[in-house]
Write a structure and sequence with these properties.
Layout lengths: L2 H32 L7 H4 L7 H13 L5 E2 L11 E4 L8 E7 L5 E9 L2 E9 L3 E10 L8 E8 L6 E6 L5 E2 L5 E2 L4 E4 L2 E5 L8 E8 L9 E10 L2 E9 L6 E11 L2 E9 L5 E9 L2 E6 L9 E2 L16 E6 L13 E8 L5 E10 L4 E4 L8 E4 L6 E9 L4 E12 H14 L4 E6 L2 E7 L9 H11 L9 E3 L3
Antiparallel strand pairs: 1-3, 2-3, 3-4, 4-5, 6-7, 7-8, 8-11, 9-10, 12-13, 13-14, 14-15, 16-17, 17-18, 18-19, 18-20, 21-22, 22-23, 23-24, 24-30, 25-26, 26-27, 27-29, 28-29
Helix pairs in contact: 1-3
């Protein structure tokens, strides 16, 4: 290939790469402008976006200033999953654009653009040459001084450790080897997982970091620690450290928030096996953390045979724990066939927990069934071999050893619904369509009456459970996350 051909080919590759960056930027900015769901269908994302002129200017600035062969990237975890964030970082009243991307060496970086003289121009770089991924990114004004802090959990490359670095826009950038302005970290801390929250209700955010010691061959089991920090006088000050339960694979979730009507605290979740998890709840009181779950009382171990994710289940501003248990009566079946129930428990601020609600979740379809009050204490669940059925529900009386089919839930693909419905009608099958979502029609079929030979009390209980059919759709929720 002659020099002219090589130059033209190289130029064309550069154009293609830059257009790729531009397209990514446009799509992500569309989400910024419209608040689109991340579960949008590909056809939705391929529609030509309407970009405001000021956002077109940002896209153009990114296309012109990001290194060749770079590409926009998202952190693995962030409150707002965006590669381009508009935020007033330095407190001057004008928003900056913070862009996350992989550079030409496949290292993650942030580039901050300022809007000056009617143009978006590169301002400072945030980089960690030894990192291969951005695990966590959060931009907050930790001390309420009008200047933002950036917290980045960097995943180390090769033998480099994971670190959390904190950058402040209240510090002066420095010139790097290439002459570009670089924001240097104010703090570098050991890191496995982190988040922020106001745990002591002082109106400012604290930083909570999970870290592990001894993951090399020197120790058979790592030691896990939870450390709380305050941001004061331009630096991190340690507030409290707690040694954690170590018999886990890894701590992979941390939530800070209200855990009772009168208390704030932290919930930690860790994996302990292929499917099992460990959950712990700590309350913040007298300037330290105290474990309130598990305590060993009433067999509490904090262990679950299926993944759990604590959250505010009833939107009352208080975090609940998810206590998982296998559906009764089927404890000896394989894990793949097991059905699990979640009891959502709220701490009473003293020594007990109150059940808020009970749910069944099927992660294949993202469906959550809030168990009707009429079923509590007298039902069980199991798998069904019937076509399109994803769970069968039985009336179940453990004391009398009495059980009978009550209902079956189905997920039927839309394109098959007409033929399935026709077949059900030919069979004389009673059914009710509940809702449509994600290409499926969800339906339920109830057994109308209990076995005729049953005692009247059991037949009445069965009738009460079957009586929820008309309201069952209101108990279903589809999660697309």
């Amino acid at each position: 290939m002659d020099n002219g051909s090589y130059t033209r080919a190289k130029h064309r590759r550069g154009q293609i790469m830059r257009w790729g960056i531009l397209l990514c930027g446009i799509l992500i900015l569309l989400c910024l402008a419209t608040g689109c769901r991340y579960t949008a269908a590909p056809a939705d994302l391929l529609q030509k976006p309407a970009i405001a002129p000021e956002k077109q200017a940002i896209v153009q600035a990114i296309e012109e200033n990001l290194p060749a062969y770079s590409k926009l990237t998202l952190p693995l975890r962030e409150d707002h999953m965006e590669a381009i964030r508009l935020i007033d970082a330095d407190g001057d009243g004008t928003k900056e654009a913070v862009v996350s991307y992989y550079n030409e060496y496949s290292s993650p970086e942030l580039m901050v653009f300022k809007y000056t003289s009617g143009q978006w121009k590169p301002w400072v770089l945030v980089q960690q040459p030894l990192a291969r991924l951005i695990d966590w990114l959060k931009i907050e004004d930790l001390d309420k001084d009008g200047h933002m802090e950036i917290m980045i959990g960097w995943i180390g490359a090769f033998d480099s450790p994971n670190v959390l670095e904190i950058y402040s826009f209240n510090t002066k950038p420095v010139r790097g080897d290439t002459g570009k302005l670089i924001l240097k970290p104010v703090e570098t801390l050991p890191y496995s997982y982190g988040d922020t929250g106001d745990i002591n209700e002082d109106g400012r955010l604290e930083l909570a970091i999970l870290s592990e010691i001894g993951t090399s061959q020197e120790m058979a089991m790592p030691e896990y620690h939870l450390t709380l920090y305050n941001w004061k006088n331009g630096g991190m000050q340690e507030l409290y450290t707690e040694n954690l339960y170590n018999d886990v694979n890894n701590y992979d979730r941390l939530i800070i928030g209200r855990i009772s009507p009168r208390h704030r605290g932290i919930i930690l979740e860790a994996s302990t096996g292929a499917h099992s998890t460990y959950t712990a709840m700590y309350v913040w009181e007298r300037n330290k953390l105290r474990l309130v779950f598990p305590t060993g009382a009433k067999g509490q171990e904090g262990l679950s045979g299926t993944p759990t994710m604590s959250k505010d289940i009833n939107a009352d501003g208080i975090l609940e724990l998810s206590w998982a248990r296998e559906a009764p009566g089927y404890e000896d079946i394989s894990y793949a066939e097991s059905k699990w129930l979640n009891e959502w428990m709220q701490w009473d601020g003293k020594k007990g927990f109150e059940k808020i609600t009970e749910e069944f979740t099927d992660y294949r379809y993202g469906i959550q069934l809030r168990i009707p009050e009429q079923w509590i204490g007298r039902y069980t669940l199991h798998s069904s071999n019937e076509a399109h059925a994803f769970v069968a529900i039985d009336y179940w009386n453990e004391k009398l050893n009495m059980t009978s089919d009550l209902a079956t839930l189905y997920a039927v693909p839309l394109k098959q619904w007409e033929s399935v419905e026709s077949e059900w009608r030919q069979q004389g099958k009673s059914y009710r369509q509940l809702l449509k979502d994600s290409g499926n029609i969800f339906a339920v079929s109830f057994v109308k009456e209990a076995p005729a030979k049953w005692p009247e009390a059991e037949r009445q209980a069965f009738s009460e459970m079957a009586g929820v059919e008309a309201e069952l759709a209101s108990s279903l929720t589809i999660r697309n996350d």
